[in-house]
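Customer ticket, subject: "Can you confirm the structure for Gfo/Idh/MocA family oxidoreductase?"

Message body: Hello, I'm evaluating your service for our small team and ran a test protein. I'd like someone to confirm that this is what the system normally returns, since I don't have a reference to compare against.
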Amino acid sequence: MNSPIRLGVIGLGAMGRHHVRNARATEGVSLVALADPAGDPHNVAGDLPVVQDVDALIEVGIDAAILATPTLYHEQIALSLAQAGVHTLVEKPLATDYASGERVTRAFAERGLVGAVGYVERCNPALLEMRRRIADGQLGQIYQVSTRRQSPFPARICDVGVVKDLATHDVDLVSWVVGAPYESVYAQTTTRSGREYEDMVTVAGRLSNGVLVNHLVNWLSPYKDRTTIVIGENGALVADTILGDLTFYENGTHPLQWDQVAAFRGVSEGAATRYALAKREPLAVEHEQFRDAIWGVSSEHVTMEEGQRALAVVDAILSSARTGQSVELSSITRTGSPTSHPNAAGARPTRG
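Agent reply: Thanks for trying us out. I re-ran your input and got the following:
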């Protein structure tokens, strides 16, 4: 029988409070203390001690930690936890940039610790089922993946723009769902709200297997939209991750006899099926995956190595937006800094 895990949560803001709630409900986990220099703004501690910083939390005696502070502090706190031998789940993104993420990833790997990243969309029932169906060949060859992640501005964000806060989800989930890393990206950003950081981004990219990708992400929509669309030779899978719904739009088996419509659509329309899925809170699933990784009974968690690869794509997106040129991912993973390509001035990325 596995021993209970003594867990601490660092950062009690908008995400931290939900981690506290889920940690309390996770079997095999004992939540023993919380840490936040601002105290307990959402009154989630109950009878648990709330200490000032990571050093005080480590002194309480913990086996594992959830790190949910602003991104700016991730590296410093994560390195302290690694030095103390504490398994850690870091809220996305792993760190501020690729080089910072590399230092964190190395620290946990060298000490044989579980290092996880909180890409909770991987635990969404619609995306889990989408990935399974793609792996089973339901869509045949994959052609394109499109994502939309739009919503009003969240007051909780103060240290990063929409690329690192929101687009990083799409970057991670696309590679995970399709099973291939990014090869190149071209991006454009804008700032319309008067803040320091970008609040809108459009991204066009290509994966290493030739699949085309695009992302539409912003904080300036008066409604919330979380949609992932994968198009293949047999049809399309569409995931609504707000509701956890997955729908399959099948290519028709009967040819269209109306020539003008057939020429316009390219393929005929078939049946549309919305699947009935078991729906659990994704964050609860994420906590269980972290627990099981610590116990050594499963490895479904998002690793820090995967989080570092997502940071490389994020860095490439921001570099492309600054230069107006396509960026190859190999230039970041090889040198730690992006190199743009002068022959890619338009929205279509170059092929490596």
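A couple of notes from the result: The chain is about 35% helix and 25% strand. Residues 337-352 have pLDDT under 50 and may be disordered. Feel free to reply with more questions.
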